[in-house]
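Please check our next protein.
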Amino acid sequence: MASEKLLVTGAAGFIGANLVRHLLEHTDATLVVLDKLSYAGHLESLTELSGNARYRFVRGDIGDRRLIGELLETERPRAVLNLAAETHVDRSIDDPSAFIETNVVGSFGLLEAVRRHWSRLPEPERSAFRLLHVSTDEVYGSIAPGARADERAATTRSSTRGV
């Protein structure tokens, strides 16, 4: 990933902030990071990066197609790494509306903005462009201890909490 630009969404969350630090340490990529700074995303997670010339923070929501479209057009990233999501299953049971808004509607908005951008790219940029959607066991289900995660494998889930 030498000298390329990446758009990382959900970058102020636990996994996103660690990914951003890893990419800055182990690649030459320039990162545009996006987060709406909800209950799980904290700008403090990225404070030490504020002076890094290869890092730029943008506060925003993945469901904001206009913002995503502008970032894709002006920044021209080679890839979008989507880590933005509402998490913590207990919260979804108490009130699923935020989960539907971000994880379904927001992800759809992001996908549509990326699809529109991708369809306008000239070759070879179009062939090289990537979208990586990162999720958790809260989407794919739990696996047996010692097993490897595989999104194509059927999972048997047991719940300690009735729904």
